[in-house]
Amino acid sequence: MPPCLAIMNEKTGTPLIATVVMLAATAVIAFFTLLGILSNLLSISSLFILMLVAIGLLVRRYYVSGVTTKANRIKFIVFLALILGSSIGTAIYWASSTDHGWIGYAITLPIWLLSTFGLWLFAPQAREPKFWGVPLVPRLPSLSIAINIFLLGSIDKKSFEKFGIFTLVMIVYYFLYGLHASYGTAKEASSAKQMKNVEEGGLELEI
């Protein structure tokens, strides 16, 4: 991205130029795009992010490197996979079924329920919040995952295709430019830190 977009406004403390450019680009896209398409794409991205937040919360609570044992890690992965699989199965069954019979739900919902309580009972948490934490873990995050995936299943196929195309474009951009730019910035910062240590006498250069 152009360096000017990273300039911070002294008064507001925000990247004002980047905000204005993003606002203009969003306004142009919104002006030439149907409201229904925009709402579906926004719904997909919002629900997907909320689902990832719930998954991230479970990972943070149940996995700590060097603390979580291999057995507990395997139990956590299995229960999380069952929660995701049963939630996806429920959403697919609801979206594809015409009569919405109870047979599919009689299979997927008990799996989700047993997986959630199995994670609660048999996989100990590796991290406890110091000041405040989300209550009812893992029941509440698991419910959030199930609801978000179910709502994603109610969105039409064409919206997912558009979302997939936009996501693919951003992934390609990240690997072709963003990843290398981030690595270059990190390397420059590390070199500057080492040079500062040399100047302060904390690190000796080998010649």
TrEMBL record:
InterPro entries per record: CAT_C
Annotated protein name in UniProt: Cationic amino acid transporter C-terminal domain-containing protein
Cellular compartments per GO CC: plasma membrane
Entry GO MF terms: L-glutamate transmembrane transporter activity; L-lysine transmembrane transporter activity
Residue span(s) of domain Cationic amino acid transporter C-terminal: 132-182
Transmembrane intervals: 16-38, 44-64, 76-96, 102-122, 131-151, 163-186
Keyword annotations from UniProtKB, A to Z: Membrane, Transmembrane, Transmembrane helix
Keyword Lipid biosynthesis among UniProt keywords: no
Pfam name, any one: AA_permease_C
Protein family membership: Belongs to the amino acid-polyamine-organocation (APC) superfamily. Cationic amino acid transporter (CAT) (TC 2.A.3.3) family.
